[in-house]
Each structure stands twice: as C-alpha cells, then as structure tokens.
Amino acid sequence: MEAKGFYHERASRVVKTLFPRNENSPQAEVKQRAAVSMSLVRDNKDRWMADIEQRLAVRTAELTAERARVATPHPPPSPPHPPSPPPPFPPRPPPIRCPSFSPR
Description:
Residues 63-104 are annotated as: Disordered. By secondary structure, the protein is mainly alpha-helical.
C-alpha cells in the first residue's frame, strides 16, 4: 500500500464530511437544499434571460422602424424661384457744364 500524504488524507476527510454516503445525515440535507436553491437560481436566470431577450427584441424592432423612417427619402425641395430681374439703371444725370468754358 502506498503511503498517502497528509493533505490527501485531510482532503478525503473533508470530502467525506461534505458529501457523506448516508442520505439522512445533516450534510446530505445541506446538499439537497443547495441543489434546490441552485435550481431556483437557474429558473430565475431563465426568467431574467427571457425578459431581457424580449426587451431586446422590442427595442430592436423600435430602432429598425426608426432607421427605416429616417432613411425614407424626403420629398424633393421645391424648385428655386427664377431670379428677379436686376433693377433698372437710374436716368443719367445731365452733363456738368462749366460756365467759364464754352465750346467754339
């Protein structure tokens, strides 16, 4: 028989204490309670995941609709008005005559 180390022997004692063969022992009851609580945790996780997936699907649909609404082409802008004609030039002023100069 091989000599087993101290830690191996201690670990086997711990395992026997935590997981006994006797199903009526307090450790077995603890183990059963742990299994029940783990199943409750799994059920809650499944419920939460379903809720999150539903919210995600709704939000994805909203965003897709919003993107489609934004991406639709808007009606083309109205054509620009024709340019207005330039204002008429003011009448020409009369030539300036110098009184001291007279053409011959």
